[in-house]
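User: My collaborator sent over this chain with a note saying "see what the structure looks like." That's all I know about it. Can you take a look?
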Amino acid sequence: MTRLDGCGDGQAGGTGGDPLSLALEVADAVDGLADLWSLALQEASLRLSPHQLRALRILDAAPGLNLTALADAMDIGLPTASRLCDRLEAAGLLERVLHPHRRREVRLNLTGRGWQILAEVASRRSHSLAGVLAAMEPAGREALGRGLHAFLAAQHDPPRGGAGTAPP
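Assistant: Without extra context I'll predict from the sequence alone. Here is the result:
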């Protein structure tokens, strides 16, 4: 396997355009990024689980969701979502507010502290990533930037009938 850290067949960075080899390198890089972000999450002033952070991020993107919608967005059961919200509410990160027109429905909203924690985690993650990027050569950073732009463009407008895209 070709790996960015040089493990495997010793051809790190030498994929020759082979999509599968490059996919393995990208997977290694994503694992490294996930580790970096996980450490940044654990260094925040309030320690959250990845599950709790995901719930906060969903509620940040869609304020006022009800419990069912949050459970659906997270692909978890209602009892699990309810316990998760109980913990977030106890930590002062989430508030439950009665729907103004549907008395039986409760909306979930982040508190000021919830937004503050999200901002802190995002800042820590950005600074951690910036530290790694700063260790790269400028040409490598530029190439990475171009590659990421090309990746996002291809992801949003994938070529039709591309060879080698389906698993064996």
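A starting point for your reply to your collaborator: The first strand starts at residue 94 and ends at 98.
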